[in-house]
Amino acid sequence: METETEECTGKRRKSDHDSDPSPHKKRRWVSGRATSSSSVSANNTPALQSEHITQLPSPSSTQVLPSPQQSGSSPTANSPVSKCKRKRKHEADFLPSSHPPKQPRLSPSVVGQIDSATPELDKYFQELPASQEEFEPLTHWEHEVDPYDMNPPTSKRPRPSDVLARRLSSSGRSTDTALSKEKKYSVYKDVNYPVVLETKGSFMRASDHGLSEEDEAFCATLHTHIQTLPPDLLFDDDHFVKFHANLRNRSEARITTDLHSRVMPSVENMCIAGRAEFAGLIEGHNDLWVKAIPFFGPRPQPDHTIGFRWWNFTEIQRRKLNIEPTAKSLYTAREEMFFPFFTGEVKCGRQGLDLADRPNAHSMTIHMRGIVDLYRRASRLPDLHRRALGFSMSHDDQTARLYVHYVEIDHEEPTYYMQALPKVNFGDNQGEKRWQCYQFTVNVCELFALPFLDRLKEVIDTLPDPVPTSSDLVSNVDDISVQSSQDEASGVDSQEEGTRKGHQGRVSNAELRNVIQGLQREIESQRQDVKEREARLTLQLEQQRTEAKEREAALLTQLEEQRKNSEEQRKIHDEHQKQLMSMLAEQSKQLKTQSDEIKKLLQKR
């Protein structure tokens, strides 16, 4: 009886696999039994010599037998055990199964063979490769990065966070974790980075001539000008020494949280507290300059940045600068920040302030390149020669380095320099200079930033007016078409809605005529402005001509007076000369008379 059962089972399995026109689907059904220990044993043990296991079909070696419909007889028709024939109809192969397939029952002989092969299975599983966790001690070197290596090792497969950072960077958006600290300073850690900057025209030192004398005196004022200090319990005389001692050998995050806000204060918070003159300033903390155009290396990501808000500049001024929402620009760091003039970097530990000076030099060079481009377009590039254009600060828990950045124009290409200002040590003399960096930052925002903004706007106004582009015309047409469609929708009944929808996206001739008339009015207003400027220039020229004539008349009068004076002097000189000649003639006569008398006296003797 057992022999008949085994024979029936073997025929049934053979029928299920070999007679099916889609044996690969049965292959997937067999692979679905991987969760069972018996299926794992059957699939992964080549040493087993079992008839039921070695006869499992595969797509490459399966022999497709004629189906019962083709042959007219079932392969199990002559079997003594007819009860083993399947009574269910075959399901369509293309229909997915909603339930996991059932596992077939194994005969006792197969189970016994599997149980007897347990030692061989254990030996086979021991020879399988180890898991990824067991290899972690051997791959620890993949996570170690040389602090002086400019290019950190890349993984074979990018992590999701790296892919997200690249997508955000390419789309002009970023988060606070767009670049980690390791990636942020990876380029700046290279020992040759200052040399590479010099090849690009940016020097991390002062030039031979230095700043202009006017700006030298101005930078001294930034240190000495007194500002009102805010109340701070930890910065008073009784608590500062202990507060400063707690920051020793602490992390960069701790220094940024506790000390940086007191060294380089927030201009936005000062504006909220009552400094209304700082309303046009904006700051960023560890924000990636997604709209900047770097000249070497990655885009800057300073720990602290101060710049001008976008609404300081009118729409015409922004169009003159060719600033587009989706395009990078030499004048912007981010969409809401124009001309970032002050950057700060915080460091701690063995990395030191030398590493913090490098990203500051990179960021300020990008800022100054925008200023140089603006003045070049306005034909006023010599006005920037040796003038202060930005400032930076690098500090840790003990010291703060302050720099002024400027440009020299007396070369074929502008060269950029940074000059060190007096260094500040927070702990000297019981914290005597602890508020000096605070005053320096406020003085830069008050004494430098506000006049600097006025100069920038004055230069931008001298640029030629932007010409209306086709995109502006299309945007105006779209606005008018949308407005007209809304007006029509409000006055038409719901019965005409279907007809009206067909014409909402179209632009009529009247609308185009309105757009053209609007553009003509703009052009006419521009012409009027040009005429007014020409009239003002003509008036100025007339005044200059009048002044020139007056100066010419005054000069002629002076020349006439000088000529008369010279004529009188000449006459006087002639009279003096005549008098001298007459005197000489009289003297000569007297001498002749005396000589005659002397001769007569000599003859008488």
UniProtKB/TrEMBL annotation:
Organism: Lithohypha guttulata
Residue ranges of coiled coil: 509-604
Keyword presence, Ribosomal protein: no
Keywords: Coiled coil
Annotated InterPro entries: DUF7924
Annotated stretches, region: Disordered: 1-110, 144-179, 482-507
Ranges annotated as biased composition (Polar residues): 46-81, 168-178
Biased composition (Low complexity): 31-45
Name of the protein in its database record: DUF7924 domain-containing protein
Domain DUF7924, residue spans: 240-460
